[in-house]
Amino acid sequence: MVQEQSRRQGATVLAGLRGLPDLAFRGWVFFSAxxxxxxxxxxxxxxxxxxxxxxxxxxxxxxxxxxxxGLSLSTSFLAALISLIFGTPLAYVLARKRFFGKKLVxxxxxxxxxxxxxxxxxxxxxxxxxxxxxxxFLQSIGITLMGTVTGIVAVLVFVGMPxxxxxxxxxxxxxxxxxxxxxxxxxxxxxxxxxxIMLPLTWRYLLVGMIMCMARALSEFGAIVIxxxxxxxxxxLMYERxxxxxxxYSQPVAALLILVxxxxxxxxxxxxxxxxxxx
Length: 279
What we know:
Blueprint (H helix, E strand, L loop, with lengths): L1 H48 L3 H8 L2 H34 L5 H13 L2 H11 L5 H8 L8 H25 L4 H8 L4 H12 L1 H16 L3 H6 L6 H12 L1 H25 L8
């Protein structure tokens, strides 16, 4: 009887010890998740709430601020539209074709994500300068990058295109190739299959890719400062107000940018939800 009780107690202790690693793991998961959320949410919430509200409401009526935010949104949308037109075929090729040098091409597409963004501005200006054949050609047809909206859009396409291409590529890879094969077996050509089968099936990824491109473009600062300080987009205006007036007049602009970005990513989460249809 005593031995049976000892055996049961020993089994209970062992069961408790086996449960400790799971308990520790769960504690680590929730603690780490809480730290990350607090680290991100805390400063952003402080930036939104720690306002001098009279200055904030004055900023809402400031024509320069509204014009800069409007310029940021419009140029970001143009960058996303250009990415849609020129990036979709590239994403399709990368998703469906195997060819020599594919990994190199994919690395080149990702390169704008990694290189310092002032480098982007310097590279674009060097190509568009008078001493470069491309620059001479652009100027001959009336295109100038330095200090123009065209230059801003060029920068935003450069930094936003990788996000669009990678998003759409992942979406196309998730669609079975048999759909295309069936379409072609029924007599549809490559063009008809692409526009009637692939694009309708990937419309959600195209939209998400455009939103990702716009969101990235909205945040660009380093390259734009070099290429087109004027006309001012919102991040450049915020930087100028910080250097000239400090936090008091730069915080409201920062808060507005945070709110705009939040709207973008909420919309992104909504449209990226998969269809829940019963088949």
